[in-house]
Write a structure and sequence with these properties.
Blueprint (H helix, E strand, L loop, with lengths): L2 H14 L21 E16 L2 E19 L2 E16 L2 E9 L2 E12 L2 E11 L14 E12 L2 E11 L5 H6 L3 E14 L2 E10 L11 E12 L2 E10 L7 E10 L1
Antiparallel strand pairs: 1-2, 1-13, 2-3, 3-4, 3-5, 5-6, 6-7, 7-8, 8-9, 9-10, 10-11, 11-12, 12-13
């Protein structure tokens, strides 16, 4: 598999493993739902990436739909379960070289907000992925993988800032994947949300993540901009666009999502 294809799959895995408190952003916030409350999210994305490799144009397209259910186990603790369905297609100079579609790896996370004072809060979010996807078709890792994310949120009305720093240990079931891919993945993101009108928030984020390609040390970086609109007190919809900032990053990704609290 080519580098662009691998990176598209990396983003899919990271996306599925994140409880998007403010989709279309990658980073999470420290907010929790509260004891006995739930949230259901359905998020979708479609990305396109073009690269030149040895004089050949490689074009990778990827799509994903993820369902994420989170439950408040207490006032400051959430349990999050996510499952993606993904499609990926790769072409070389217009000729199809690879494609895959199907269910990806299931993710399970626990978010705990352990500090809160004067509009500043901290949370930790450990999680793991279970190999429910077919690794032979590039739809999963083939082994249980895990990681942890530290989250900081600061309220500066009308703006709220979120800082995420994460580490993921990816294990692979297939020997070719173990040889080609990096096991230790780091992620950092900084995001901001601002309510500009009643029920309407604008969102922005910059993010960097380790390259999944074990032969490259360049970290893909991207920026995201979007909007979140509250149709009702318990229903939100969102739209966003993610732009790659350097060569390893996916060129362009369109994002959309729906969430319901109950």
């Amino acid at each position: 598999m080519k580098r662009g294809f691998l990176f598209a799959l990396l983003l899919t895995v990271l996306s599925a493993a994140a409880s998007f408190a403010a989709h279309p952003l990658v980073g999470d916030d420290t907010g929790t739902h509260g004891s006995g409350k739930y949230q259901l999210e359905v998020n979708g994305e479609a990305g396109i990436d073009r690269q030149k490799q040895g004089g050949v144009e490689v074009r990778t397209s990827s799509q994903q739909v993820a369902a994420i259910l989170s439950s408040g186990l207490g006032e400051s603790v959430d349990l999050v379960l996510g499952l993606p369905w993904q499609w990926t297609r790769e072409k070389e100079d217009g000729a199809l070289r690879g494609k895959a579609n199907g269910v990806g790896d299931l993710s399970l996370e626990l978010k705990w907000r352990f500090f809160e004072r004067d509009g500043f809060s901290l949370a930790v979010k450990p999680g793991l992925t279970v190999p429910t996807g077919d690794e032979a078709r590039g739809l999963g890792n083939g082994r249980v993988s895990g990681g942890v994310t530290m989250i900081a949120t600061k309220e500066l009305a009308p703006v709220t800032m979120h800082l995420n720093a994460g580490y993921f240990r990816k294990e692979y079931g297939l020997e070719p994947d173990r040889q080609a891919n990096r096991n230790d993945i780091y992620l950092a993101s900084l995001s901001a949300l601002a309510e500009v009108f009643k029920n309407l928030q604008l969102a922005a984020e910059v993010c960097m993540v380790s390259n999944n390609d074990g032969t490259s040390g360049a970290w893909p970086a991207f920026a995201t901009a979007g909007a979140i609109y509250s149709l009702r007190e318990n229903i939100d919809i969102d739209l966003g666009i993610k732009q790659g900032l350097n060569e390893p990053a996916t060129d362009l990704t369109l994002l959309a999502g729906f969430s319901m609290h109950f």
